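TICKET #2291
ISSUE: user wants both folds in one file
ATTACHMENT 1:
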Amino acid sequence: MAVEGFPRLEKAFVFVFEIDPPVKIGTTSSGSDLNYVRVTGGRVTTVHNFSGPKLESTVIEGEDWINVDNDNRRSRLDVKIRHENASTVPFGNAVNFGQFQTGDVRYKSLENDFFVGSGRFVKNDNGTFSVEYHVSKVIP
């Protein structure tokens, strides 16, 4: 018997954020560490052949709330950004999901979609850090 009905993914966006050093807020009741990171800039680009609206944008500011599991192997991110015009670690240590909210009618259809992504921290040549996400659209 064939198993059917699984969603598939469509490559959609690449998010690259410049960030300030994380600030540890404390330990949650589950034992995970909660950290706050200020997003100071960045870029959102659309992956070639994405079927949805093309989004090319400069990030103006934002924030990222990071819950790091007790074993330091996984983290959950909660990123909020504002953008105009609408040592490095490997991918896979931070997986996230999300949806878009927009006031721009050109990107309104993105509000009906669900996205998942894999992220990593990147150490830049000047010693600062960036966060990079590769984001895919979930296709039912």
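ATTACHMENT 2:
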Amino acid sequence: MGAAADIEGLMVRSQFMREAMIKSQTISDNMITILSSFDHRLSTLEAAMRPTQAHTSLSLFASIFSWSKLV
């Protein structure tokens, strides 16, 4: 009787661990999906901002250069 109870206990623990691993894998997969989506949207935003950043940098450089000629 003791061995059968031990085996039953191990089977219950094994099933619990299997379910926990599946739940953990599901959470990991969902986080990967969320982070991949965020990365894609951030890359899109960065690409859209590049022309603005380049224009702003050139304008700033031009204003500094013009100001230094006046001094």
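RESOLUTION: both attachments delivered.
EXTRA DETAIL ON ATTACHMENT 2: The helical segments are 2-70.
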